[in-house]
User: Fold this.
Amino acid sequence: QVTLAESGGGLAQAGGSLRLSCAASGRILSISVTGWYREVPGKQRDLLALITSDGNANYEDTVKGRFTISRDNAENTMYLQENSLRPDKTGVYYCYAAGDTRWGTTEVAFTEWGQGTQVTVSS
Assistant:
C-alpha cells in the first residue's frame, strides 16, 4: 500500500509564499508522475502542476511563473513552492502520484491522493 501525506499548508498574505510537501511511503518501486491539485467547495478539483520522473514540469496558466513543482526521487517527496500568492488560490491542496508498487511478488500500478492541506491567502 502506498500513502501520500501533505504538509506545509496554512495562512499566507497576498504576495507571500508557502511551500507544500508531499511524502510518499510504502512499497514504492517508482513514481512516474506526480501533481498538485486545488479544490474549493462546489467546484471540481483543478490540476495546477505536474512533474514526470525525468523532471518535465507543466503548469496551469494562472500559476506559471509563480509556482514551482519539484521532486526528490531518492526520498519519494514532492514539493510545490508557491510564490506571489493571490486570494484566488485559497483552497485545499492535494498531491497525486502514479507509479509502480509491489503486491506480494507482483509489480502493480498505483494511483494515490494525499489527504489534502488547507491553503488560505488573505488579501
